[in-house]
Amino acid sequence: MDAQNMVVRWYRNDPFGLVHRYSTSQNDTEEQRPEYQGRTEFLKENIIRGHVALRIHPIQPSDGGEYACFFENSTYYNEATFQVLVTVSGMAPHIHIESGNRRDIKLTCTSAGWYPEPELQWRDHQGLNLAPVSETKTVEENGMFHVKSSLTVDKSSTANVSCVVRNLILNVEKEVHVSMADALFLEDYTWIVWLAVILIFLAISAAICLLILRARKAKEWIKLLEKDGMEFARKYAENVTLDPDTAHPYPQVGEDKRSVKRGDILQELPKNKQQFDDLVCVLGQQIFSKGKHYWEVNVKNTMQWTLGICKNSICRQGEIMVSSETGFWTLCLSRSNNYQALANPRVILHIEEPLEIIGIFLDYEAGSVSFYNVTNKSHIYTYKQCFTEALRPYFYPGPLSSDQHGHTLTIEHLSCLEKPGRKCLCY
Asked: What is the pTM of this model?
């Protein structure tokens, strides 16, 4: 009969308690047992014909037991009881082979995820049961059973052995076979496995040693940069000059193209694609795509300067962020009067005395740009980068000073020494 307006209840009889209640076309779970909260769903697609169902999901081993279903209204009452069996067929068993004594081989069969407690049997090639030497069945945290059984087999046997785990409710079994001939073969060649493990270990150890040596060489290279780097770099002195065609309209480039300062008047310069229209800077005329190159810049009494190199392909129109991520590898004196390497993130440099002359050394193949304090011949900072594009010297002369005159950045005159015909290793 139509049960739309009836009260439908499901109870557990052992232990007793409400599983789900449906009343006045709504679900009422106020008195529901805690272990069923959020896991029950009332199915009422055919309730007009008096057919309803309760779905429990996810199912748990503890859900097995006796249930009762009640239909009730003011003139009708009926109930039904039924038994729910929860069962799970677990994973296929696995056999582990290990050497026993000189005469025996030990086989251990394991499988997990069974409910209720399964049956485990060892069988020979004729299907006859074999007696295990040990067997354990344990209940895991999820309520499922884990089984483990061991069997000892004489090494003279060459027949197959099977481990079978059975679900007694469903009468379903899962089985694994092992060939004794294969087991003996594996045992005979165990020494080969150990030899392979030892060789792999030695190979890994050799690789680690090589990495340590490479790291030590890299540290030695850094020490060279810090100790003797400037003397080495000066062997690659370049006659660097400025390229007025790249200059923003504010910076004023000297006639000898070796000095630049920030002017207070926006110059009327011919428009060209090489010129920066927002970033107040100028590039060097030299374009470097290989080799080693060194130049020095006098920054004495100059405010907020930035020096270094940048990619020749840098977009020169619009707002540009000066950073190693955008293709600039530079050193600067910031507005807050501290020295910084404009990496990402920025690196604050602790320099005791104001810098007056800065040496810049580019080793293209080594992928490094190093900065030196020429006054005391000390190393300041080094960028490490794999260069793939042409590079150019970069100059930002800073803002106007308080007396409305920009201080000047000047490229020092250096005598180019004979350049060695060797390349430095890039660690």
From this structure: 0.47
